[in-house]
Amino acid sequence: MKRAQLFGTQVWIRVANGVEQIAWTRASAVFLKTKMSFNPPPQLPVVTVRPATIGDELTLRELRLQALGDAPEAFGSTYERELARTTADWQRWFSPGTTLILEQERVPRGLVAGALDKEDPAIAHLMAMWVHPDLRGTGAGDLLIRRLLSWAADQSARLVRLDVVATNQRAQGFYYRHGFRLTGHQTIRDRDGAVEIQMECPVPL
Questions:
Q1: Is the pLDDT of residue 198 over 60?
Q2: Cα(157)–Cα(139) distance, rounded to whole angstroms?
Q3: Through-space distance between the first and last CA atoms of the chain, rounded to whole angstroms
Q4: Whether the bond into 204 is cis, omega within 30 of 0
Q5: Most CB atoms closer than 10 Å: which of 34, 42, 190, 202?
């Protein structure tokens, strides 16, 4: 009988200036009893996450327009509204909250934005998140959410909350996998009447 044990190795690399890199090696194999051939899985993309800063206004604008072109029903804003934003509008995404940009070979491919609650700084809000369709299922989204949770911990927040469209089961499953749970609170979105449900996650210590 032919048997093989496959071992996938995942490698995490942290580099300076707040940039985190993730890479995967190809699977290695230990052959038992009988030598057998196999096709190794394709190597997954190398991506980095960095904080957005002054000078990233056009990058943020382009990512938001891509996101709204890809999944307009997932966001509270509209393509037209984002198109009309000024440079000063985009700079408000950088502070006092945070916006993290996902890059693949220095090409922007996603983002996540967070801000502390104005009345209760122990609560952080995930304001927006998007990953390019080509990178979904590769771990890129996981990296973004982990970095946002890390930012929330640095701000001494104890909870991260978000609103997600009730019909977006894929997004709900993604957030659930990272520890988010339904709170039972829901709202009706003004622009189109979509139901948004609230989820929250305790910030890791």
A1: yes
A2: 25
A3: 48
A4: no
A5: 202
